[in-house]
Amino acid sequence: MKSFRHLSVQLLLLATLFPILALCYINPATTSIHQNATKSSAYRAYIVLVQPPPSNAGEDAHHQWYESFLSTSLAGDSRKSRLLYSYTEVFNGFAVRLTDAELDKVSKKPGFVRAFPDQTLQLMTTHTPEFLGLRNGTGFWSQADYGKGVIIGLLDSGIYAAHASFNDHGVPPPPARWKGSCDAARCNNKLIGAKSLIADHDSDDEQGHGTHTSSTAAGNFVTGASYNGVGTGTAVGIAPSAHIAMYKVCDARDCKASAILAGLEEAIKDGVDVLSLSLGSSTGASFDQDPISIGAFSAVSKGILVVCAAGNNGPIQSSVTNEAPWLLTVAASSVDRSFSVNIHLGNGKTIDGEALTQIGNPRSKLHSLLYSKEWRYCNYDYDNSITGKILLCKDNKSRAQRSKIRNIVGAGATGVVLFNDEISGYTTTVTDYNSSVVQVTAADGEALIAYIALTDNSSMASLAYNGTQFGVRPAPVVTSFSSRGPSSLAPNILKPDILAPGLNILAAWPSKTGHGQGSFTIISGTSMATPHVSGVAALIKGIHPDWSPATIKSAILTTSDIINGTGGSILDEQHRKASVYDTGAGHVNPPRAADPGLVYDLSVIDYAGYICWLLGDIGLATIVHNSSLSCAKLPKVQDVQLNYPTITVPLTSTQFTVNRTVTNVGPAESTFKVKVDVPRSLTVRVIPDTMSFSKTGEKKTFSVSVSSLELGKELYVDGTLSWVSEKHVVRSPIIVVPA
C-alpha cells in the first residue's frame, strides 16, 4: 500500500533533524506551516554529544557519566526534570534543557564533543504491489515468504493498532532476537512493537501518517478495501508477513530531533532489521551536525538498513534531503492507476481528468463551461452567474480555495474543473472535495482555456465518471513534488538513490482523524514512496539474512528500471525525459532485486574513510560510534572512490580514473562482460572488460577511466555501465560532471 498528498506549502519531508524536520507527505488540508506558539524561554533543549564514559560498564555507567556533565551546572532537584533523553546506541550523549550559561559550563567539561539545538518541526495498497510485480502465491513474493521473520521499524506518528491491516493471520511469532515491547491497543505477531518517545506516552496515531506508512510497508491482506468506492481491491503491504515495530516520534503537529534520536536508540536496542523514516529536513546540515545522519550510521553499523524519504521540495534542483551515503534515499513516482473522469466538450473532443468523488451520471447533459482570468482561482461570488455552470479554475493548493470550491458547488455550480499549475504539470495529486470537482493536468487546463476562447464563451461540457482505471500510460512518472539532486553535501554521490510509488497511494488510516473517516485513505508524498522500498528491503532480507545494508541497497539500485510501461524513458512531471537526479538509479523492481548477480558492498571502515576525507577527525569522532578508529589509521576515501553502486566521475583536463569492487552473489561460476552506453562526447574505458568468477562471495575490482575533449555547456552528462552475464544485468548510472 502507498500514498501521498499535496500540501500547498509542501511540508518538506520532516526527516533529517536539523534545520527543519517534517513527515514527508503532502497534506491537502494544510496551507501554511504551523508556527511554534510556545513563548521563548530561558531554557532551550539541546542534544549533547560526549565521549564514551571512562568505565564503559553498561547503561548505568553511561547515565552516571552523563549526569556528571550536569552536576556542577544544574541544581540537583532540576537535573532529572530537565534531562529529556539519554543515548547509548546512536551515540554517547543526552538531550537536556539548558540556559546559555549552563550550556557554556557543560561545554567546558572534559569529554564534551558537541551540542546541537533541538528543533521542533512539522509533519511532512490495493494496487502498488501488483504494479511492482508482486503477485500473490507466485514468483518473488512467494519465494521471499512475504517477509516472514523480518522486523521493520518505523519512526513516525504512531499506529492505529486496531486496523485490519495489522491482523496477524499467517504471521509467525517474532524471532528470538527481538528485545522490544509493545504498548498499543492491540499487539500481536504482526504488531510486535509500539512505543511512544514523546510526552503523550501513547503509541496511538492521531495524525494518520504512521498508520499509512506502516501498512504500506508491511500491512496484511485486507479484502474489499477502498476509499469511498475508488481504488477497490485487496489492500496489502509490500512485505505482508513481516513484523512491524512503531516508534512514535511525532505528534499531530511536529517532530523533535531529540525524540527521533530516542526512537533510533530504541529500535537499535530492540533488534529491528530495517528502519523506515518518512522524515526529512529542509536544509542540509553537514553530516557531523545532523543527529539523524549520526544516529542512522550507528544503525547501519549494526546491520540495519535505514530507508529515508528524499523530500517533497521538487522540482527544485539540489532540494534532496537525507543525503548521507549510508542512507537509502527514496524519490516518488506515479503508478498506472487513475480515478477517471471524462470531460466531454461541445466540439466532440474529450479530456481525461481524475476525481476521488465519483458521481453516477454517465449521461450527464452538457452545461456551460465558464472561465474567467479574473476569477481563475475560483474566487467567484455566490450569485446566479455560476448557477448550472461548470467552472474552470486553476489550482493554487490552498485551504481557502478548497473551502471556496465546496461552497461554490453547494451554491449552485454544476461542477468545477481544477487544472494544475505549471510547476505541477502532469502530476495530479488527487484531493477529495466531496463534490463534483475534476482535476486535470496543466496542459489540459491550457487546452480547455483555448477551447473556451475559440467558442467565445459559448463552450459546453459534460462530466462522465468512470471509476478506477488501470494501465494508465506513461507510468511511472517522476512527481513534481519529489525532491531532486544533486546533493549539496555530497555532489559526487548520486542522490536520490531510487524511485518508488508515491502518488495517490491507498493505505490504512485511523477511523477518525482530521483527514477522512474511513479505514483507508489516499495520500501522496515521498513519505509514501519510502515504505515501499522498506518493504522491498525486508523481502530481500528474508531471502538473504546475511546480506549487509550496503549489499541490499546495491541490489535494489543495480536492478532498477530506467524505462516506463511503454518501453520509453521514465519521464518527469513535464513529460520530458527524467534526469538521473530525478530518478536516482531508476525505479525499484522487487523481483529482480533479490537476484542481482553482483553487488557493491561497503563496510563501516569504508564509510569511516570517507568521513575522514570529508570531515576529518572531528567528523569521525562525531559520527562513527567506534573509539578504536582514527583518521591517522584509516585510508581517506574520496567521494568518487567510495564503492557506491552509482558512479560519478569528474571531468578534468586529463583522463580521470575511479575504481569499484564487486562481489559475486550469483552462480559460483559466472562471467560478466562490460557494456557502456554514454554520449559520443565521452571516452570511457573499463579495465578489465570481462570478469570471471569461480565461487560465490568472490570479489573483483575494475577501473573506469573517463576523458572528453569538452563537456560543452551541459552541467553533466550521463549514461550507464552494465556488467552482463548469461542471467544478469548489473547496471550503474555513470555521471560525468565538470571538476
UniProtKB/TrEMBL annotation:
Keywords (A to Z) from UniProt: Glycoprotein, Hydrolase, Protease, Serine protease, Signal
Q: Which Gene3D superfamilies match?
A: 2.60.40.2310, 3.50.30.30, Peptidase S8 propeptide/proteinase inhibitor I9, Peptidase S8/S53 domain
According to the entry, every stretch annotated as the Peptidase S8/S53 domain falls at 147-560
**Subtilisin-like protease fibronectin type-III domain segment(s):** 641-736
Classification via PROSITE patterns: SUBTILASE, SUBTILASE_ASP, SUBTILASE_SER
**Any GO BP annotation:** proteolysis
- Chain segments annotated as transmembrane: none
Record-annotated PA domain positions: 381-448
Gene Ontology annotations for the cellular component aspect, listed alphabetically: extracellular region
Fetch the InterPro entries from UniProt.
Answer: PA_domain, Peptidase_S8/S53_dom, Peptidase_S8/S53_dom_sf, Peptidase_S8_Asp-AS, Peptidase_S8_Ser-AS, Peptidase_S8_subtilisin-rel, Peptidases_S8_3, S8pro/Inhibitor_I9
Q: Which GO terms describe its molecular function?
A: serine-type endopeptidase activity
Q: Mainly resides where?
A: secreted
Q: Which residues form the active site?
A: 156 (charge relay system), 209 (charge relay system), 527 (charge relay system)
Q: Where in or outside the cell?
A: Secreted
Q: Tell me the ranges covered by the Inhibitor I9 domain, including all copies.
A: 46-124
Segment forming the signal sequence = 1-22
Indicate the family of this protein.
Belongs to the peptidase S8 family.
PANTHER family given in the database record: PROPROTEIN CONVERTASE SUBTILISIN/KEXIN
Q: What is this protein called?
A: Subtilisin-like protease
Natural source organism: Triticum aestivum
Q: What is the lineage of its organism?
A: Eukaryota, Viridiplantae, Streptophyta, Embryophyta, Tracheophyta
